[in-house]
Amino acid sequence: MNHLETFFEGQNVAITCVYCNYDKQSQQTVLNLVSSLLRQLVQDHYAAYDYVKSLYKCYQDQETRPTYQMVLGALKLIMGRFLKVFVVVDALDECSSETRAEFLIALRDLPDTVRLLVTSRDLPQDFQGARLLDIRANDRDVRRYIEGRLPRTDLKIHVNREPTLQEDIVKAISDNIDGMFVSCT
Description:
Layout: H1 2-7, E1 13-19, H2 30-44, H3 46-62, H4 68-79, E2 84-90, H5 97-108, E3 114-120, E4 131-135, H6 139-149, H7 165-176, E5 180-184
Parallel strand pairs: 1-2, 2-3
Antiparallel strand pairs: 3-5, 4-5
Helix pairs in contact: 2-3, 2-4, 6-7
């Protein structure tokens, strides 16, 4: 994200992202994910603000909320105002399967100016034929990273040469790390 923002600074290019979280699946509906992308465009690009403000005002006056189709339509309309739009979706596999399927349909329906980067542990069927970059976490690097992040206090107590709590934590995390597929379209 930082690289894209720096590289395209001052250009008519938009950069948005969605970070999926397994613990927040109930909040990560397709409407909320698409709304998040739209909100980022409005926050970062004043030109998008007026249109969304009028849409919001219309629904506020009626005391209703816009439908998913209205939000998606607004997102597509605003994305069409940019030369290029980057959408980064991190950890797509963390969404529920229903949300993931619906969100992929929405992403595939975005304008041709959209460049999509999706990370996921599992390769969804929808990405067959897309350019893929297989990233696998190196066990040694994972261990080094975890060891560097753990506090250096009571975790290193040895009892009868049994593994330390720190060693147990490092082993448990590194044993459960799995690579992820990255799709770029």
